[in-house]
Amino acid sequence: MFLVAGTGRCGTRAICDALDRFTDHCVRHEPEPRLLAEAWRAHQGRWRWTPTYLRRLAGFRRADGAPIGESVRCAPLLLDITRVAPRCRVVVPFREPDAYLRSAWGRGVMRRGDEWDRMRILPTEAAGRAPVDQVLFHYAEVNRILADTTARLGPRSLVVEVGELDAVADAIVGFVGATVTDRAAMADFLATRPNAGPVDGWDAEPLPVPAADARAAAAAVYERLRDAAG
Q1: What structural domains does the chain harbor?
Q2: Taking the complete model, does pTM exceed 0.70, yes or no?
């Protein structure tokens, strides 16, 4: 079993779909329940052991060692999951901060007011800030947690910068020991960059200039991930 964990807007849907279609692994993109609330509570230092979370942990325990994978958006819970599933591997894809910001802004991140926004993992300094700053603080905080987690997991983790999606998929395939069933078809599928681009007119509002401290926080963790990726 493996998990693809990140901030979102890193090609994870396309990568999961490609691995599911064109390898011998069953791979799901952010299946329900997503554990957004439990991850938010864990980050806040609050009680997180809901019945839903306990059922998911039991499922991870049963799946440990199976040829399956899924993408998740619950960085604060990864150490819990890898404790109950000790053979689980964790893949962390990441993008350069400005590219992430443009993509997230085009999707209305921190402006939609939905469950995703209400449960965003944010540092304390993001409270009351402009949405554009909160997007970068979210990037910085989630990736900080992921960098800390992969440092603890060591060889059970793979940190990979997202450029060409087929190269990222190949890196994951090698890391988790999957077998590609149709490499040309997988490359063609990923070349279309499915799920890329803005939706629902959220890109109509011009992207504001982020504050210097938000940019600095994102840049610092980006460099840390680049070092981890080698």
Answers
A1: 2-229 (3.40.50)
A2: yes
Q: Are 96 and 174 in contact (CB under 8 A)?
A: no
- d(C-alpha 102, C-alpha 97), whole Å: 9
pLDDT tens-digit map of 108-126:
999 999 999 999 999 999 9
Question: Is residue 102 classed as helix, strand or coil in its secondary structure?
Answer: helix
What are the beta bridge partners of residue 28? 70
DSSP 143-186: HHHHHHHHHHHGGGEEEEE-SSHHHHHHHHHHHHT--BS-HHHH
CA distance 70 to 27: 5
Nearest residue to 106 via CA among 7, 207, 202: 202
Instruction: Render pLDDT for 43-62 as a digit per residue (tens, 0 to 9).
Output: 999 999 999 999 999 999 99
